[in-house]
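To the wet lab folks,

You asked to see what we're planning to order before we commit. Fair enough. Below is the target structure as tokens, and below that is the sequence we designed to fit it. If anything looks off to you, flag it before the synthesis order goes out.
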């Protein structure tokens, strides 16, 4: 079953964050992950949620998604993101 990582990011240091964006794509390859949404414009339809940047990643399984998140390929990028942005991130299975 497909799994999705959904991320809301508030970037504090855009210049440094650019390095994160460059590293993340290549880190997905080994884990068959792909971007579904990567920072497109958002529109609030209900509630008071007004996110800045939204990213959605798709993986074939939740196991691969977890492996990617803790992988040596992603770790350098993750460290950059954690230093330069506030992030909310969830893993959810698809249907």
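Sequence we intend to order:
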């Amino acid at each position: 079953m497909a799994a999705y990582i959904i991320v809301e990011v508030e970037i504090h240091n855009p210049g440094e964050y650019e390095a994160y964006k460059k590293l993340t794509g290549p880190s997905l390859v080994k884990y068959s992950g792909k971007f579904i949404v990567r920072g497109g414009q958002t529109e609030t339809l209900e509630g008071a949620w007004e996110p800045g940047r939204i990213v959605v990643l798709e993986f074939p399984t939740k196991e691969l998604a977890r492996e990617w998140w803790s992988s040596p390929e992603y770790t350098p990028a993750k460290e950059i993101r954690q230093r330069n942005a506030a992030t909310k991130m969830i893993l959810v299975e698809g249907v």
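Structural context that might help your review: The chain has one domain: 3-93. The radius of gyration is 13 Å.

Thanks,
Computational group
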